[in-house]
Amino acid sequence: MMELFIQQIINGLHIGSIYALIALGYTMVYGIVKLINFAHGDIMMVGAYTAFVGITIFDLSILMALLLSVLVCSILGVTIEKIAYKPLRNAPRMWALITAIGVSFFLQSLIMILFGASTKPFPSFPSNPIKIGSLQISQITIVSVVVAVILMICLELFIKKTKLGKAMRASSEDAQAASLMGISVNKTISLAFFIGSALAAIGGVLFVVAYPQVKPMMGVMPGLKAFIAAVLGGIGIIPGAMLGGFTLGFIESFTKGFVSSFWPPATLWADAVLFSVLIIVLLIKPTGILGKNIREKV
Predict the structure, then answer these.
(1) Where on the tree of life does the source sit, at the highest rank (predicted)?
(2) pLDDT at 295 over 60
(3) pTM score of the predicted model
(4) CA 46/CA 38 separation, integer angstroms
């Protein structure tokens, strides 16, 4: 039983690190423009398809495919902000929310037109799991966790220590005052979308390496769960996104490993428990686990 418990912790760290990476993108965008970018999960999906094309058609290595995905998704994120969200910046928030849902459907439809609606296998890579007794830790699990933690630390240092990061914090505090002080709010918003989309691309590539298949709807549930993670940890707070992502990963892993063994199917129970936890947390602490510290948000 103890070995199963530890194995579920390892599994939770793996999927939680991916949720955390995507949740960081939600946090970056929400922190500045107060927009819930529901197309964020579909940007992750575009990143996965970009890696798929890079590997299968252009015969790129997984690292080069990852860099290509980051580049494509970053440009896509900035383009979406300029075309779809910027004209609605002073409009009611509901308009921007509806637009985000529309962008999500547009990206899904575009991928269906280009690649078809069927699921396609993603190239698998040889991996020798690290064995400790009866426990197995895959290399992709280690890579995912390390990448997520390093990126969170780098992002936190970027926001707090660099000139651009301070400009982003100023814009999130008061965009009008920041503009009067000479800060280009438009550039800081574009930068937030650029970084957020790059994180989504990395999360997408790690996701398809671990679960080797791509499909047009693949970004819906991971994107929604990453949004839950951001809200759970305290949306707008970088450590909160990481905390929420890993928390969701543990909840999902333990539900599939223990609860679902008595009442299958596993996926349905895991999703039900995740949403139930979100409701409970919001009822008890609506601002999320870490609260809403305005000074810390991006």
Answers:
(1) Bacteria
(2) no
(3) 0.91
(4) 14
Tokens of 25: 């993108």
Q: pLDDT digits over 224-276, tens only? A: 999 999 989 888 888 999 999 999 999 989 888 777 566 666 566 778 888 88
Q: How far is 137 from 154, CA to CA, in rounded Å?
A: 25
In degrees to the nearest 10, what's the CA dihedral of 224, 226, 227, 230?
160
Radius of gyration of the chain (CA): 19
Q: Which fold has domain 7-125+140-284?
A: ABC transporter involved in vitamin B12 uptake, BtuC (1.10.3470)
**Backbone torsion region of residue 129, taken as left when φ is above 0, otherwise alpha when ψ lies between -120 and 50, otherwise beta:** beta
Alpha carbons 28 and 168: distance in angstroms, whole number: 9
Question: What residue spans define the domains of the chain?
Answer: 7-125+140-284
Backbone angles phi, psi at 135, to 5 degrees: -80, 145
